[in-house]
User: Which sequence fits this backbone?
């Protein structure tokens, strides 16, 4: 069966450290993989998209890697800050004939302690 | 601030009521989506509209009826819902080929 799993339900780190979140998937062949941030009671906000032929993407303190052989993406936040505390969702972009759908992983709640 | 607007923000309804959730975007996006999200769970896709036509229905019960009157508006009509349908309903939009979804803040639905 198809699955998207994020390594841990919650991750607790000290301010200034690098947070690393993992997304693993099975029985999918996505063309793209995306990461979103969601704060409590709010809609998800897009962070980064990485294509199947890209190994790494960066945006400010964020870095995403995508290994289609391992079927895994890693999401890094460097120099983490308490304001980075949120739930982070990976999502697989499944292309179809005239549209596409985004299927979300279970999410990881990140808490950055001051 | 999000550019996808959802109304109402909160809705309480009985199992025999008929109500609608509304979503509006003015970014010129030609794809629109409904997701359902239960507490501490990820968003779950319900419907996708492309060019105002329903392109994906994820086997959603018929008590949920989507409608896309034009390229800026998306409705979700609700009828004879069950208490387990209580959730946050999220609308999103995107350009068809870029991938990034823009989400609204959601409508929190409670079914009594």
Assistant:
């Amino acid at each position: 069966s198809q699955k998207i799993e994020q390594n841990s339900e919650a991750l607790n780190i000290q301010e200034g450290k690098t947070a690393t979140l993992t997304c693993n998937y099975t029985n999918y062949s996505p063309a793209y993989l995306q990461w979103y941030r969601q704060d409590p009671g709010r809609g998800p906000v897009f962070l980064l998209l990485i294509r199947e032929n890209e190994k790494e993407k960066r945006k400010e303190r964020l870095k995403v890697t995508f290994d289609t052989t391992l079927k895994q993406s890693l999401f890094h936040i460097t120099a983490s800050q308490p304001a980075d505390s949120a739930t982070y969702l990976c999502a697989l972009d499944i292309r179809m004939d005239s549209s596409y759908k985004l299927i979300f992983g279970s999410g990881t709640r990140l808490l950055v302690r001051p | 601030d999000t550019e996808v607007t959802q109304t109402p923000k909160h809705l309480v309804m009985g199992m025999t009521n008929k109500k609608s959730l509304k979503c509006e975007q003015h970014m010129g996006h030609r794809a629109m989506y409904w997701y359902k999200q239960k507490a501490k769970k990820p968003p779950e896709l319900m419907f996708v509209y492309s060019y105002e036509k329903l392109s994906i229905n994820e086997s959603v019960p018929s008590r949920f009826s989507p409608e896309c009157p034009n390229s800026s508006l998306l409705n979700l009509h609700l009828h004879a819902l069950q208490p387990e349908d209580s959730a946050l309903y999220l609308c999103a939009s995107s350009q068809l080929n870029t991938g990034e979804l823009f989400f609204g803040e959601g409508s929190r639905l409670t079914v009594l």
Summary: The first strand of chain A starts at residue 3 and ends at 6.
